[in-house]
Each structure stands twice: as structure tokens, then as C-alpha cells.
Hints:
The structure holds 2 protein chains of 2 kinds.
Chain A: H1 3-8, E1 14-25, E2 29-41, E3 46-50, H2 57-64, E4 72-77, E5 80-81, E6 89-92, H3 104-114, H4 119-132, H5 148-160, E7 166-170, H6 178-195, E8 198-203, H7 206-212, E9 215-219, E10 226-231, H8 246-261
Parallel strand pairs in A: 3-8, 3-9, 6-7, 7-8
Antiparallel strand pairs in A: 1-2, 1-4, 4-5, 9-10
Helix pairs in contact in A: 3-4, 3-5
Chain B: H1 10-36, H2 46-57, H3 60-93, H4 95-110, H5 117-124, H6 128-151, H7 156-164, H8 169-206, H9 212-221, H10 225-253
Helix pairs in contact in B: 2-10, 3-4, 3-6, 3-8, 3-9, 5-6, 6-8, 7-8, 8-9, 8-10, 9-10
Amino acid sequence: MTAVADAAAAAPLLRIGGLRMRYASRRSGATQALETIDLDIARGEFVAIVGPSGCGKTTLLKILAGLVEGFDGTAALGGRAIVKPSLDVGVVFQEPTLLPWRTVLDNILLPAELVKMDRIACRERALALMHKVGLAGFEHKYPKELSGGMRQRAGICRALVRDPQVLLMDEPFGALDAMTREFLNVELQRLWLDSGKTVVFVTHSIPEAVFLADRVIVMTPRPGRIAEIVPVALPRPRRLADMAHESTGALLERIRRHFFSHGAAIE
Amino acid sequence: MSLPTDRLSPRTLQALLVVAVFVLVTGAWELVVRVGQMPAFILPPPSAIAGQLVAMVLQKLFWVDFSTTMHEVLLGYGVAIAIAIVLGVAISQVHLLELSLMPYIVAFQTIPSVALAPLFLQWFGYGLLSKVVMAALIAFFPLLVNVIAGLQASGREEIEMLRAFGATRLQILTKVRVPNALPYVFAGLELGVVFALVGAIVAEFVGAKAGLGNRILQYNEQFNIAGMFAVLMVLAAMGMLMHRIVALIKHRTLFWIERHDRGG
């Protein structure tokens, strides 16, 4: 990171204040999805959000992506309220959702195409990203010719093609097998260390959150609120072997306790 | 001991079986007609039909009829495609249109469209127009229904992905909804081309100066049953050929879809 970026990092890049969200549904009336979330995320930070299913972590991510309206409180990016999808945000979804009639490269270029960014510059950036994540040579293949892990890598390239400041990831590796998942965790860390992006990463997996994040935001079951913010002080770059370390084990246990203390797992 | 079928590819085997069935059925037909001394104005033997077919395609007038019907079918098909696409896009995109028009479309579909043929003759005359309208009408509904179903078939995930990257409504339509609609649209196109042929022939039955349907009526009046069968064979060939062409374009266009069956 440059000195200029460091100075700008003093103010949080993402600011969530007093955020509440309720869904109106005809059958059960109103459901409180999120209850007073306050969270500041610094520029260049890697934040993971963990919580049980239905705790509203995906809703929180969608609010940051500008996809959800009708919440109370504020969500701001670089001091500006988030009201619609922004060029400064790239999203990686649970499913890679690549369009099957487009080649891998054309899929990655789609976000740039939507806002008519400079084709040549974007193409170059896309090719560089593909090279970085090990997709070089697959530019003109179609998604069905790729493995699940490769498709999700293409999804990450797509999210980064407009060179956004923020990368939002919604359980991106949840559908992959354990080996691919660990491998992609290592790759994501490397990509993040190289790029200096701010990442908000939603996951079910506590070890994944601890391996990747600077801070792990632990959320309660619905209505989702922040139970604890757990800083992870492990040095970078982290290796998978670090996960076996004693201090890591203590962190995992500390996070895991939250889910047991909320009765969800005790019956 | 191995059966001879083990050594053949499934395709060759099928081709052989199809030919075998044809030979058996026409052979039996020929035999029954000849042995039973069936009068030719009830059921002519296949050999007579083949003779008629050859004689017919050598007539210049036959080709006038052929191209007349072909014109009616293709024009009607084209008109049906154009209207179905415009209306289908409008209905799938504008909720008010869907709410107000869909019940009528569903209701109209249940009307046997061929019953309108005499009306069209009255309105549009003995010429090309009444046939084009009939062909278009019959081809129209399967097309429209498929265009609408197709445009509504896009997955939530794909649309949400596009929205997250700031796509406009129009971009969502052109970049996701339309490509996702194509398999449905082609299903409609395959049905539609065959339906258009049915429409043109029915309209010719009701009143026409030329065309293959008209020719069937003439042969009928002349008790030339073999001739009727010959025209029927031409119509069958037309229908299969046009269907095949559409199917071919479909396979070329929808390259990203896994093919399960290569038959048809």
C-alpha cells in the first residue's frame, strides 16, 4: 500500500451504524432480520462474518452491495451512503453464476461491459487476474468445461475486473469440497495481500474465517446482532499448518462457544 | 452366439429397423390391396401412389401449388414469430400487460383456431392473405406461450448477479433473460413451423385457387385417392424438412446446452 492509501485508511472505508432490518411477510408478520449492527471496516482490512443460518449475514452483505432497500440506520462506503450497487464494490456469490453461453473471459468482462468501461484496459486486467488465479489458458473455454473450484475463481476475477475497492464474498467456497476449499483459501489470502482490497467475507466455517480474517464478526441467530468481534492476530501470510497451532485452537473455541451458548446447538 | 445387432452402431441399427418397418408395412399394404382386390378409390396400393407421386412432380403446375403453399407457410410463420416476440417481450416485461392479457391468451388458446378459417376467407378473400393469417394464427400461440415462459425462466441468482454489478433492466433482459429464453423459443419455433403448415392447408381446404391443400381437394373430387396420398407424402416431407431445419439451427444456436437426444 502507498503512503496516500495509508493516510486515507485512517477513516474507515465501510461504516455501518445503527443498522436494523425487518422483513414484512404476509404469513408471519414482520421478521426482524438484523438488530442494531454497528461496524467499521478499515481500508485494506479482511473481515469475516460467521453466524448460524438465517442470522442475516447474507442480508448484511446485500445491504453493503446496494441490493437491499428499506433498512434503518446507515451503511456508507467512503463516506457516501450506499443506496445502489457501486463501481467500488465487487461481489462474489455462493454459486459462481457464470453465464453458460459466454466464454470464461467474456464472463469475467461482463461487469465492465455493463458500464461500458474501456474494453482494452479491462481485457488486460481480466487476463492478468486470470493469470494470477491460475486460469491462464482457459480464456476461451466455456463454464461447463471448468471444475467447480475454477468456476469460483472466475467468479472472483469477475468481481475484481472493475478494480473495486471492496470485495464482498458470500460463502464463496461453501459448495466446494474441503481440499479445493483450503486451497482457494490460501489463494484468496495471497490475492488479497497482493491487491490491498477491503474484503468482507461471509462464511459458515469458523476455521475458514479464522484463517482468512483480520477480525471475525460473530453474529447471533435471528434477529442477527453482533455477539463478539474477535481479532485474529496470526502473522501473514498464514499457512494451513498454522491452523493446528494452540493459539488458533483457542480462537476457534472462543468463537464456537457463542453458537453453543445461544441454545441453537443444545437440545 | 452373438446377435448380429451387437456389431452395429445404434444409429445404423435404427436406420435398418426403420427401413425394415417401411418395407414390411408397404409390402403388407400392397399385398392386402391386391389379394383383397380393394378398389383404388378406397385404398390404392403403394405402387400406384409412387407412380402418382412421380407423375405429379413432373408437372409444372404441381410446383406452382408447392410454391404457393410454401409461401403461405413461410409468410404465416414469419408473421407469427414477429408478433409473438414483440407481444411476448411486452407481456413478460410489463406486469400490467401480463395481468390484463394473459387470461385472454389462455382463453383464446382453447378455441379451435381452424374453426376461424371460413371467417378469414370472408374477411381476407380467396388469395394468399387468408392462408397467411390462418397459418400465422395457428403457429402464434405455441410461440407466444414459449416466448413468455422463456423470458420468465431466468434464475434469481443470475439476475441478482447482474443487479449487483449495476445492470439496467434492459441489460438484464438482453444479457440474461433473452439467452435463457432461447431453449423455450426454439421449442415454440419447432412446433410453430409444423402448425403453420397445418394452418395453410386448412385455409386452402376452405377456399383457394392454388396450393397443395387445394390439390388434395381436386384429387378427392376426381376420386384420385392415390394422388391424394402422393400430395400427403409431399406435405409430410415438407413438414419434416422444415422441422429439421429449425432443429438444426437450434442445435447450432444453443451450443451451451447439453444434448441428450440427437434423434428426431
